[in-house]
Write a structure and sequence with these properties.
A hairpin with a 5-residue loop joins β17 and β18. A seven-stranded parallel sheet has the order 8-9-7-10-12-14-15, with helices on both faces. A six-stranded antiparallel sheet has the order 1-2-4-5-3-6. The longest helix has 23 residues. By secondary structure, the protein is α/β, with parallel strands linked by helices. The chain is globular. 23% of the residues lie in helices and 16% in strands. It starts with 17 loop residues before the first strand and ends in an 8-residue tail after the last helix. The chain is built from 13 helices and 20 strands.
């Protein structure tokens, strides 16, 4: 979750902006050094590039680059006072800080929720034409999520179409993994989030822009594997093992996702015909972006309004261009329609968070609460809602396997790593975490949670367990990709595709309905959680706050007969 520093302290506009791919504009090569702080500025509705540039100059800033499709600009300006001036300048929505402010330690990636099993173990030791079909892979017997969504049955009918592209808007994708490589789309993949030294550590390359096909965070590779790891007789397979995977690196190595890289990635997806985009994150630094939260300063309010406007525009633009948008609902164990006080924002710079009461009508968790986004809650092997998972009638669309370490109370599976989600993971990150040694071998203490498999030519893939709504969302995204594969039209955009509303309709219509538990108020105290985790499931069998329209069903999705297909 992080800001670009690509042009910090550089580049002022001295001539007309140059149009580049995907509606981006950049400054001339001879731009001079200028201010020392970088901002992302969003223009008001229906304001031209020229007028926006003039307004930004009036507020004291100079345009470095921009994305004209959504009226967003990278600006250098004085460190103090510019946010307030931009918010009060006609023609602008406002500005949000883009350059780093202070220093923050590397954010744990994955987070505490996602690594619960490993932390518990450490604590214990310390104390196309004819639809393609596919089989199963050696580690698939550990993928209870795969069978829960019936991918094992669906792939005998339709394992996905290579023409269907799925964007992984995340920390990157390790394309060297032999389960990822066969389905990785190099042509469309792109990195939008250069490393930030203060949170990501030293840059691996001179440009600080990690090469496409790498993932120094690990999160994105795990997500990608669940969606579309190839069924190739090695390691694991994904829900849709024959679709194409596109890296949209909008997240920092450290796990932060900030506004500008996220918006640019969404616009790239829209302008390049990507069918489905998975978003397993929230836009930092605010868990909830509020229009005018009394707990926030005027400058912070202005920044949040800027984030809201830019994200709403980007999501709407992507939807209008045919992108189906799927997002993790969140790991804050709260009803999204009845949010608790936000105690985690802002999460950057470090140690700046304060208590913020959240007004549901004027605050949004983005992207999951943005327009046209399908929100996904998480469940465990028992099909019970995962303790950490957000829920609620207002935002949940469907539910999917996300892992639940504490599932199976009273059985041998309670608090075991097998309750989580196994997927692809970069060797480099596992080595940094200490579960794989320098020679590339799994450390004995991690033999139950990390796996290595190699093919005949010596290419090795690595796999580990995580849990979270970040793991639930890719299960739903995989089913959405199968829906496009099975029901797409040759008359669609780029020669093949399916309108997002049709994808959403089929995803909901084919989901396996699941009623609320009885009683509907679920306590997690018996698995070691505080009463804050208690969750009330509202609604009926057809739709409720835990499962939405139901648990995604890949087999029902690929065998369904949509009403529009019979007209």
């Amino acid at each position: 979750m992080g800001y670009q520093k690509r042009l910090t302290g550089a580049a002022v506009l001295t001539a007309t902006l140059t149009l580049t791919a995907a509606g981006l504009v950049s400054a001339p090569a001879n731009a001079e050094a200028g201010a020392t702080t970088e901002y992302t500025v969003v223009a008001a509705d229906n304001v031209s590039t020229a007028d926006a540039t003039t307004a930004i100059a009036k507020a004291g800033g100079k345009v470095v680059a921009g994305n004209t499709d959504v009226g967003m600009y990278t600006v250098v300006a004085p460190q103090k006072g510019f946010v307030e001036k931009a918010a009060n300048t006609a023609g602008l929505v406002g500005a949000t800080h883009k350059a780093s402010i202070g220093r923050a330690p590397k954010k744990e990636q994955p987070g505490n929720v996602e690594r619960e099993a490993q932390q518990a173990a450490a604590a214990a030791k310390k104390g196309g034409n004819k639809p393609a079909t596919a089989g199963m892979d050696p580690l698939d017997d550990k993928l209870w999520g795969l069978t829960t969504v019936k991918s094992d049955k669906a792939r005998k009918v339709n394992a996905g179409d290579k023409r269907v592209t799925v964007g992984i808007l995340d920390t990157g994708v390790d394309a060297s993994n032999p389960d990822i490589a066969p389905n990785f789309n190099w042509a469309l993949s792109k990195n939008f989030a250069p490393d930030m030294v203060d949170i990501d550590g030293p840059c691996e390359v001179a440009s600080c822009l990690d090469p496409v096909g790498t993932d120094d965070g690990g999160h994105g590779t795990h997500v990608a594997g669940t969606i579309g790891a190839a069924a190739n007789g090695l390691g694991v397979s994904g829900v849709a093992p024959n679709v194409s995977l596109v890296e949209l690196k909008g997240g920092q190595d450290s796990g932060y996702f900030f506004l500008e890289p996220t918006v640019n990635a969404l616009v790239h997806a829209a302008n390049n015909g990507i069918d489905v985009v998975n978003m397993s994150f929230y836009v930092d630094p605010w868990l909830y972006n509020c229009v005018a939260n009394p707990a926030d300063s005027a400058a912070d309010q202005a920044e949040q309004r800027t984030i809201i406007k830019a994200m709403f525009r980007a999501l709407t633009y992507a939807h209008s261009k045919g992108v189906t948008l799927v997002s993790a609902l969140g790991n804050n164990h709260e009803d999204k329609g009845k949010p608790r006080t936000d105690i985690s924002s802002p999460d950057y710079p470090v140690d700046t968070a304060y208590d913020r009461p959240v007004d549901n009508s004027t605050c949004w968790d983005l992207p999951t609460e943005g327009p046209f986004v399908i929100g996904v809650s998480a469940l465990g092997p028992s099909l019970n809602k995962s303790d950490y998972s957000d829920y609620g009638l207002e935002r949940v669309g469907v539910s999917a396997p996300g892992g639940y370490f504490r599932d199976g109370l009273g059985t041998d599976t309670y608090r075991t790593v097998g309750n989580e989600i196994l997927s692809t993971y970069p060797k480099k990150v596992l080595q940094e975490e200490g579960s794989v040694d320098e020679a590339g071998n799994v450390v004995p203490d991690f033999a139950d949670s990390v796996f290595k498999q190699c093919n005949a030519v010596g290419q090795c893939g690595y796999y580990t367990y995580l849990q979270g709504t970040s793991m639930a969302s890719p299960h739903a995204t995989g089913v959405a990709a199968l829906i496009v594969s099975a029901h797409g039209s040759k008359q669609g955009r780029n020669g093949f595709g399916l309108e997002p509303w049709k994808v959403e309709y089929l995803l909901y219509a084919t989901a396996s309905e699941h009623a609320c538990p009885n009683p509907p108020l679920v306590s997690y105290v018996n698995v070691g959680r505080t009463p804050e985790f208690d969750a009330l499931c509202e609604g009926g069998t057809h739709f409720n706050g835990f499962y939405g329209h139901g648990i995604v069903d890949a087999y029902a999705a690929v065998t369904a007969h949509a009403w529009w297909e019979h007209r």
